[in-house]
UniProtKB/TrEMBL annotation, chain A:
PANTHER family: ARABINOSE-BINDING PROTEIN-RELATED (PTHR43649), POLYGALACTURONAN_RHAMNOGALACTURONAN-BINDING PROTEIN YTCQ (PTHR43649:SF33). This is Multiple sugar transport system substrate-binding protein. Residues 1-19 form the signal peptide. It comes from the Bacteria. The keyword Zinc does not apply. Gene3D superfamilies: Periplasmic binding protein-like II (3.40.190.10). Keywords: Cell membrane, Lipoprotein, Membrane, Palmitate, Signal, Sugar transport, Transport. It holds the Pfam family SBP_bac_8. It comes from Isoptericola halotolerans. The keyword Membrane applies.
Automatic annotation (TrEMBL), chain B:
PROSITE patterns: ABC_TM1. It comes from the Bacteria. It comes from Isoptericola halotolerans. Keywords: Cell membrane, Membrane, Sugar transport, Transmembrane, Transmembrane helix, Transport. It is a multi-pass membrane protein. SUPFAM superfamilies: MetI-like. Pfam families: BPD_transp_1. InterPro entries: ABC_transporter_permease, MetI-like, MetI-like_sf. It is found in: Cell membrane. This is Multiple sugar transport system permease protein/raffinose/stachyose/melibiose transport system permease protein. Residues 1-37 are annotated as: Disordered.
UniProtKB/TrEMBL annotation, chain C:
Residues 86-288 form the ABC transmembrane type-1 domain. The chain crosses the membrane at residues 21-43, 85-109, 121-145, 168-189, 210-235, 270-288. Pfam families: BPD_transp_1. SUPFAM superfamilies: MetI-like (SSF161098). Keywords: Cell membrane, Membrane, Sugar transport, Transmembrane, Transmembrane helix, Transport. The keyword Membrane applies. This is Multiple sugar transport system permease protein. It comes from Isoptericola halotolerans. The keyword Membrane applies. It is found in: Cell membrane. Its main location: membrane. It is a multi-pass membrane protein.
């Protein structure tokens, strides 16, 4: 009697499935270790697929686990493009790990949301770091990183000299007019698109790369004094001036949003200038050799600016052993590890000791100019929980302007969007 | 698997015995009992799927429904507040991108649905012929479907560039008369570019659905039609097309729904730009509700989307209902 | 191009021939248009990044010329645990598709061939659920599955725990029931004559027997179509595992794709990896396609 039995089985299992869900009460399955063994510290990184970085973490973790018996760090690596989604999902499910790394500008947002707790490391550690490698919200430190990145303009000395273009220095960078002239000259010299500005990229790159230009022109993403409005900062006359230049650069063909993310075009001498990051420097050194120039970004009126703040570490508020997490982090900030990160990944080390020890960034290292650019010009993105919305709105507005949208009305629209968001979040604690 | 009621039945009588009591108990009673049994068995056989749909579709949709009346945020220390219809007002009165997204979504569907359905049928008819090598063509037309849409979108983004393959092909065909353009960067061409890619990517799938419909049409009908001297065109109009009714309903409904749900291509290729010319309802809902963390407002957009699609689907169902 | 009844056999043969030639021509042109992503992918997987990018605007993009090697494939295996990810995806996909075929075809059978209270309402509701794109409910879903109970064995004793994150079943169970599949089965089953059921009922067959022994064997094309239809989303799952699976050794292949998008994208490796994970799909499609054709042949008698 197949039909009878089937119906019975099916309804029985359906009922039990419903009953199971019915008694679904939250109670996240934290794996609490049994008595004696070391306490497990879970740790997530954004470094899957990046063997150079993972290698250093593995070394630190092995050393730390061997150095004491109280804690054991267990790591899980996520690919970068998927990392934020994984964190947000884990937070929604109340399932965050003890230790997690995060991109600098998101720190205030996660601190405000209660994902992470004040870092509370030995001040000797955090004081020794580059100011842009420390993440704060409301004057409290929430994160610290082993390195910072920096952007610069890559050029070939021979190309600039052949075209009679002055080589700028950190003390005497190009003005906008000089930059325009240089671009026009280079275009005439046969470079169809003389400047690779990286506009084919998407996401945080836009705020990271172009909001410092806006700041250099005297505008900003938000009014940093109050953090309550973008009005006047993102749509003031300085901002309109900057975006007029930005739109013009694409209209005149000085820059384009075709091409590929990365620095191939510069390395192949298809573009003369490339606005790009320290992480691309080794490939360009290989391709160009001694002819490579690492130049400061242009001065849009208020002095050159570059973005500061890269990946940093924090401790989640649900961490079951914050003392262990702190012990691990303090252990990990030893100069030898910071140096290893810097040289493996080609990023600027965050401690003076590591700068000295680094192959690339020591005073006679081949990438030394980045250290100076970072020291003199780095500016953090606004440290407000509103940043993710600000950044996404900025990216959209800047792209629309690149594609020919009316500048003042686009910026006013972006300001209205940001302000509405800040207001509906009750000022994000400011 | 035996239930207690089945055990007393003697093995040799198991099959006929099953029916015997009903037959013996008189026609009326037997019918009613059989009906009841049929009802129970019917519900039982549908139950596993229904329970799963309830758990993993209906409940999350209801959660989203509840969220749409609040100002809930994905990341926030503040508990969500009930805000009534504020989110709905915002969408229709204070969010021009939402209105633009709605327009884009409908334009996309209005082009994709008929074109893709027709092309799919054309391909299906071509590969339904009994000629050598036809299997290879079936597989080839299906290849874009099995290639991940993310990869396909990245690839087409390359090709649509100013110095990309599309322009260099047009250049060759027009003997250099064509000025290359960046298709995805111009508000007037970006949506069209996404339409072309989307049809190309999905049409093989609907070819397959049409094909499975074509194969259910008995060869005898064609033979009869040929005997009556029907031309291939007449055969198509009088045999093929009527035989494809339920397939057509399925194809139209699935393409419509897939088209209205356009998301990945936009996310990978244009992020809704340039100047909102490719933003769609689902993309806008994800951008607001997930990327910009406004879960409540994102849920509102999703809810409006569900209602609109439901209306369209019902209208479509009404229009394509079987007249018999 | 008419074929009058009186036409001589030779003329008819000619017309057929001409149609055949046209068909081949049309299909060949289309084949080129449809084939190029696969060709581009395979060819590019053999080239270094710089060459992929410089070839992109020219026909060379589709030719294995220049600096050809298998380096990208070695790179892929260095960067990503390919075999583990493949295993996970095969497991998740086979179970999702297999259980889905059973569950959805049973529902389609009940909805198309049996009379029961609420049937038409249920059918409308099932079709209504078609309109929900997964992206729009992903966030509530994560929250919801993190609250679902699960059975764990602790020292041999079964015990309830909460939270479905980080498991295989969270990647499978939510996707077994599929409104598209139910809809397709319902449509297909309704084309099979109901008189078969009645005859079987008179012979004393139960409903499940009718489903399993009579209707299902006649529905080969529907099963093959649904298998392909549900195979693809299961294999291409990306957003969901990203959100609910944290352990690397439970991740499916599509998440692995993100491993190549570092600060600069390793395009050659992306293409190599994509080739590696697309080929199994093509193989499956090929084998189903054969089953599809033969099941049609087998059931060709019915009207």
């Amino acid at each position: 009697m197949n039909r009878r039995s089937l119906a019975t089985i099916v309804s029985a299992s359906a009922v039990s499935a419903l009953a199971l869900t019915g008694c679904g009460q939250a109670g996240q399955g934290d794996t609490t270790p049994d008595g004696d063994g070391p306490v497990e510290l879970t740790m997530w990184t954004h470094s899957a697929g990046n063997p150079a970085e993972l290698e250093v973490y593995e070394q630190i973790i092995a050393d730390f686990n061997a150095s004491q018996d109280d804690y054991e760090v267990v790591t899980e690596a996520f690919p970068q493009g998927a990392y934020n989604d994984a964190i947000v999902a884990a937070a929604a499910a109340n399932d965050l790990p003890c230790l997690l790394d995060m991109d600098g500008p998101i720190v205030p947002n996660w601190a405000w949301a209660g994902y992470i707790q004040p870092l509370d490391l030995d001040p000797a550690v955090t004081d020794s770091l580059l100011p842009t490698a420390v993440g704060t919200y409301q004057d409290e430190i929430y994160s610290a990183g082993y390195w910072d990145a920096a952007l610069a303009i890559f050029a070939r000395q021979s190309v600039l000299e052949d075209n009679g273009i002055r080589i700028p220095t950190a003390d005497d960078p190009w003005s906008v007019d000089e930059l325009d002239e240089a671009l026009a000259t280079l275009q005439d010299a046969g470079y169809d698109t003389p400047l690779d500005i990286g506009a084919e990229d998407t996401g945080e790159w836009w705020s990271y790369a172009y909001s410092p230009m806006l700041q250099s022109a005297g505008g900003d993403l938000v009014d940093r004094d109050t953090m309550l409005t973008a009005d006047g900062a993102l749509n003031g006359p300085e901002a309109v001036d900057f975006f007029t230049w930005f739109q013009g650069a694409f209209e005149q063909g000085w820059a384009s949003d075709s091409g590929t993310v990365g620095n191939e075009e510069f390395n192949n001498d298809e573009v003369a200038l490339s606005y790009t990051g320290v992480w691309n420097a080794m490939d360009s050194l290989d391709a160009v050799g001694d002819d490579l120039l690492i130049l400061p970004p242009p001065d849009f009126g208020d002095g050159p600016r570059i973005g500061g703040g890269s990946w940093q570490w924090g401790i989640s508020s649900t961490c079951n052993a914050p003392d262990g997490a702190r012990a691990y982090l303090e252990f990990s900030f030893a100069d030898e590890y910071v140096t290893a990160f810097a040289d493996n990944q080609v990023v600027i080390p965050a401690t003076p000791g590591a700068v000295e020890a680094s192959v690339h960034f020591s005073p006679d290292g081949d990438l030394r100019p980045f250290v100076e650019l970072s020291e003199r010009f780095a500016l953090l993105r606004p440290e407000t929980p509103a940043y993710p919305v600000i950044s996404s709105t900025f990216e959209k507005a800047a792209k629309d302007i690149m594609n020919g949208a009316d500048i003042p009305s686009t910026l006013d629209g972006a300001v209205a969007e940001i302000d509405a968001n800040i207001e509906s979040n009750d000022g994000y604690g400011f | 698997m035996t239930t207690p009621t089945s055990t007393p039945v003697p093995p040799h009588a198991s099959r006929p015995g099953d029916r015997a009591p009903a037959a013996a108990a008189g026609r009326r009673h037997g019918t009613r009992a059989a009906r009841r049994r049929e009802g129970r068995a019917g519900f039982g056989m549908a139950a596993p799927a229904l329970v799963l749909l309830l758990l993993f579709l209906v409940i999350p949709v209801l959660l989203a429904f509840g969220l749409s009346f609040t100002n809930a945020r994905l990341i926030s220390p503040n508990p969500p507040r009930f805000v009534g219809l504020d989110n709905f007002l915002r969408a229709f009165t204070a969010d021009p991108v939402f209105l633009r997204s709605m327009l884009n979504t409908f334009v996309f569907a209005a082009v994709v649905v008929p074109v893709q359905a027709a092309l799919g049928l054309l391909l299906a008819v071509l590969v339904n012929q009994k000629i050598r090598g036809v299997t290879a063509f079936r597989v080839i037309f299906f290849i874009p479907v099995v290639t991940s849409i993310v990869v396909v979108s990245i690839l087409w983004r390359f090709m649509y560039q100013e110095n990309g393959l599309i322009n260099s092909m047009i250049d060759t065909i027009t003997f250099g008369a064509w000025q290359g353009m960046a298709w995805l960067n111009d508000p007037s061409t970006a949506l069209g570019a996404i339409i072309v890619l989307s049809i190309w990517q999905a049409v093989g799938f609907h070819m397959l659905i049409w094909l499975s419909g074509l194969q259910t049409i008995p060869e005898a009908l064609y033979e009869a039609a040929r005997m009556d001297g029907a031309t291939p065109r007449q055969q198509f109009a009088n045999v093929t097309w009527p035989g494809l009714h339920s397939t057509m309903v399925f194809v139209l409904v699935t393409i419509t729904i897939a088209a209205l749900g356009l998301f990945v291509q936009v996310d990978v290729m244009t992020q809704g730009g340039p100047v909102n010319s490719t933003s769609t309802l689902v993309y806008h809902a994800v951008r607001k509700g997930y990327r910009e963390l406004e879960t409540g407002y994102g849920a509102t957009i999703s809810l409006i989307f569900f209602v609109l699609v439901l209306i369209i689907a019902l209208v479509q169902r009404h229009l394509t209902r079987d007249k018999d | 191009m008419t074929t009058p009844r009186t036409a001589a056999p030779l003329a008819e043969h000619d017309v057929r021939r001409r149609r055949k030639v046209w068909s081949y021509a049309a299909m060949s042109v289309l084949a080129v248009i449809f084939l190029f992503p696969l060709v581009f992918m395979l060819v590019s997987s053999l080239k270094p990044d710089s060459q992929i990018l410089s070839d992109i605007g020219s026909p060379q993009a589709f030719l294995p010329v220049g600096d050809i090697s298998l380096d990208n494939y070695f790179g892929v295996f260095d960067r990503v645990p390919v075999s583990r990810f493949l295993f996970n995806s095969v497991l998740v996909t086979v179970l999702t598709v297999g259980l889905g075929l059973i569950v959805n075809s049973m529902a389609g059978f009940a909805l198309s061939r049996m009379r029961w209270k609420g049937r038409s309402l249920v059918l409308s509701l099932v079709i209504a659920t078609l309109i929900v794109p997964f992206e729009t409910i992903a966030v509530p879903m994560v929250y919801w599955v993190s609250k679902l109970p699960t059975l764990v064995l602790e020292g041999g004793v079964p015990k309830y725990d909460f939270g479905w994150l980080n498991s295989y079943h969270v990647q499978i169970v939510p996707f077994i029931a599929n409104a598209f599949a139910i809809f397709l089965f319902t449509q297909y089953f309704s084309t099979i004559p109901k008189s078969l059921d009645e005859a079987a009922r008179i012979d004393g067959a139960g409903w499940f027997t009718i489903y399993r022994r009579i209707v299902a064997p006649l529905a080969g094309p529907a099963f093959a179509t649904v298998a392909i239809l549900t195979f693809l989303p299961a294999w291409n799952q990306y957003l969901w595992p990203l959100m609910v699976v944290q352990q690397e050794d439970l991740r499916p292949v599509m998440v692995g794709m993100q491993y190549f998008f570092q600060l600069n994208t390793a395009w050659g490796e992306v293409m190599a990896y994509t080739s590696l994970i697309t080929i199994p799909v093509l193989v499956v499609f090929l084998s189903f396609q054969r089953a599809f054709v033969s099941s049609v042949a087998a059931s060709g008698v019915k009207g």
